[in-house]
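Anyone? Bumping this.
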Amino acid sequence: MKTVSILFFLTIALFASDNKDIMRAQILEKIISNISINETVTVWSDNKELLAELKKSTHIITSNDCAKATVIILENKEKIHDDACKNKPVFVLEYNLLKELPKSFGAFFWKKGRPNIVIIEPRIESQNISVSKELKVYVEEKVW
Amino acid sequence: MVKKKEFIIFFLLFLLALFFVYIYNNITKAKDDIFDRIENHQIEQISSILKNIEKDILDSAEIKSSKDLFSLFNDENMRESYERIISLMLTSNVKYAYILYKDEKDRFRFLLDASKTDKAEFYQKFDVTLSEYEAIYREKKPQIIKQHDIENLYLTYLYPIISNGHVVGLFSIDITTNIQKIILESIKPLETFFVVLIIFILLLMAMTIMQIFHYFVTRKKIFTDTLTKTFNRNYLEEISSMLNLEHYSLAMLDLDKFKAINDTYGHKAGDYVLAQASRIFKDSIRDSDILIRYGGEEFLLLIHNRNDSESNIDICERLRHNVSKEHFYYDTNEIKVHVSIGLHKHPSLEKNIQEAIKIADGMLYIAKKNGRNRVIAYDELEHAKTSSSASSKDISYVKEALDDERVLCYFQPIYNHKSGEIFKYEALVRIVSKNNTVISPMQFLPQLKHTNMHYKLTQRILLIVFEKFRNNQKLVSININFSDLMNPDIEEMIIKNLKNNHHLASRITFEILESDEIDDVELFKQKINLLHSLKTKVSIDDFGSGYSNFKTIIDVEANFLKIDGSLIKNIDKNNKDFRVVKSIIHFARQSNMQTIAEFVHSKEVYEKLLLLDIDYMQGFYISAPEASLVEREELFKTAF
């Protein structure tokens, strides 16, 4: 049922080009809600608009300080300066960042106009991140 | 009739709008058709290229399964080689071209991506949600996905790579919207032109509708009395030619003592009473009935024949009762209002509606005469005689003249030959026609006899004379008949104007027709006494033409005796008339009455009358009636 709901979001995302930022925030909210780590999930993002959208969510906690976050949503790798942040689990918004950042465990991105989700299994395991059954369909063994 | 043209224009515009909508629709269809043709053409081209590439892939590497396909493209050199081949398809219209394959977990993955932008990695997962990706495996046929919401993509063409009857992979070609945009931009001016044209026509249609609407509003205004919201006489004129009187009864309604209400409480109160009474009338009748404000406080009601047991008299009685029981309050004053009604039950028996109106008006006259606040219905048998002789046109003619203020008085001097001065003037009614000719009373007075209109005419004459002579020293005679004297409204008017104005009253003489049918002598005497009490003078008019006895004449103590013109006009030739006139003069002297000879039309008649020593003379030889008061110097100017 939950799988259906994320698929539904992906389908909706196709038809919501005008509200891509909002839709992206909603999908990310759904993804973050379906992962668990040892501590409370607190999200920080380098994309201020996205962070502002995520703040509206009642399901996830956000922080303006990446040091206080437990999960980072990253669009631009250059924007992590703080050492305290560099070792935190990262969910990226570009597929290529998965290759560049060893700490990145998943990505949400647009490929040829279609929304895509990828979660890298070894990385979630190494960072003690577990994903719900709903996200299993997006789990990959490695970054291709 | 005028609006028929507008309806035709509206209909033509409607047809024109339909035509342009049809054209616009065809253009849209043509646009879609062009898109389809382009789409088919593009797909045909792409399909033929892909077919060749497919053949090349399958033949060169002996692909038997999807694993073979994976193995083929796992070789980077092979991948690059095919990417170069497929990339040749990329144009401004073909944005992405790539090969997908479904792995053992049924996930779609890129085996090859020849796209110049947004290039995918080898074996990168590709999340697809549309059913066509599954359908291509099932149906083994190319699929077309119309893309409505992916940026700049028009459609995606999926072409299967089939080996041994199984789909081992698929080409995916994303086509952009560029050509469609160009076509849309080319057609847009034409579309805009038609849209503007259709809007313009719709505006014209709206204007035509407004004009038609305006016509009906104006038409309603023309036919509606603003005060009472009932129909007015224009409406009666409009419908009279097409009205089938067989379906109606006709009633004339007149509010009793309405003038007194106006005089006592003011015109605003009068208007209020009229509006309220009209409301009661309307509430008491059905939609099929027609209520018309005929003028002033007078209404005409056409009662549509009912099938039920209620007779037309019952309806009129109900109307009368409803008005009587209503309490009219204006400025804390309670005003009692009653209505008199004259009914003609079968107006279709008359020559036309004006005839029927005249008869109903006659019934109204009787209702007023019999004490008001009552309904009098027309009895065909009793009134057959009077109805046959009447001229219907004249009553409405007089009514209209009264409403248009075209009723006026001419004044003929009554000459005192002994002093050589004008003794007084006789007021004579005239109507000025719409084309400004003066109509003599002989043309309209006989038809008014025993109608309510006669009262109204008399009231108007009294008003005119009272106003004209109120502030001068001259004397005046006013003709009045017995019926007028019996009319309470007229009596009220005389009392109101003369009771406290002796200066005016003493200069007024009421000339009462001796020939009038005086059916109640005692009442007649009472009314004459009333005139005497007001200090006015009384003259017996047309003496010698009627049948009243001398005793009555003496009893009423008239001041003047006007000898009938039929006895005067031939007095110079007819010795018999001479002797009769001589006797009348003698009788008048004995009875303390002064004598007046009318119809003095020649010098011979004038000189003969001098021999009889008559007191006063009046006639065309002395002066014709004039609109203004002629002076002494202007007498005897008419040449005969």
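Late reply, but here is one note on the structure posted above: The helical segments of chain A are 2-14, 20-33, 48-55, 83-86, 95-100, 121-126, 133-136.
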